[in-house]
Amino acid sequence: MEILAVACVHNDIENLMKLIDAVREQDFDAVVFPGDFTDLNLPKGFTRVDVAKIVVAELESLGKPLICVPGSWDKDVSPYLEKKGISVHGRGKIINGIGFYGYGGARTPFNTLFEPADGEIELGLIKAYEDVKDAEAKVQVTHMPPARTAIDKIFSGAHVGSEAVRKFIEAKRPEVAISAHIHEARGVDDLGKTRLVNPGRFPEGNAAIVSVRKDHSEARIISLIQEVGAPA
To answer: For the chain, which residues make up each domain, given as ranges?
Structure first.
């Protein structure tokens, strides 16, 4: 399976719409969005769910199955994602033999709306994994990246990811783990046999294409800026 991973729209609907056409030319079978539909401030007259509905509609316009978890600003959005049947927050679903499971939210220094403790993340992942334990291959989707990896490092060089996310990857060894949250740490890494992916911030022209294979998964970060011009 080929996955398009996009993340961290943060209310930036204008650039989302500019870039969504650029990814239509990519070859993929499903779309994964690991959180942050919204941000601290909202467009005037919009609720968080209003923003999420626009983002989801744009992603669904790609015509592929959509898998999401809420980000650190998306606590109010989570019930909408669950009602749509596109959430793997504390649950799992199998698509074409691939088991997707996950948990959203992330710790920050900014007192965001959804900052689960590591214990809560661990329990959520345990519950979600049960739904897909018999799938032939598995993809873990979290907003928080795994600790002490290339995809959880902030500009200072400090690692700020989740130990619970890391330990769960080490224990269950999914083929791929997709996360977001740390925009500057976009990229690809490995943790044991698991390919780690942080697609970066989509409105800045960043996304990832992930090939999920039982024996050898690959991922690459793609830049869409050349196709549409630099986002405003």
So the answer is: 2-228
Give tens-digit pLDDT for 77-90.
999 999 999 999 99
∠ CA 164-221-127, nearest 5°, is 25
71/99 Cα distance (integer angstroms): 21
Q: Are 17 and 61 contacting, i.e. CB atoms less than 8 angstroms apart? A: no
| Predicted confidence (pLDDT) at residue 230 exceeds the cutoff of 80 | no
Asked whether 51 and 43 are in contact (CB, 8 A), the reply is yes
DSSP string for 90-152: T-EEEETTEEEEEE-----SS--S----HHHHHHHHHHHHHTTTTSSEEEEEESSPBSSSTTS
Q: Please determine, looking at this structure, whether the domain spanning 2-228 carries the CATH number 3.40.50.2300.
A: no
How far is 166 from 180, CA to CA, in rounded Å? 14
Question: Is 177 exposed, middle or buried (CB count within 10 Å of its CB: 0-12, 13-18, 19+)?
Answer: buried
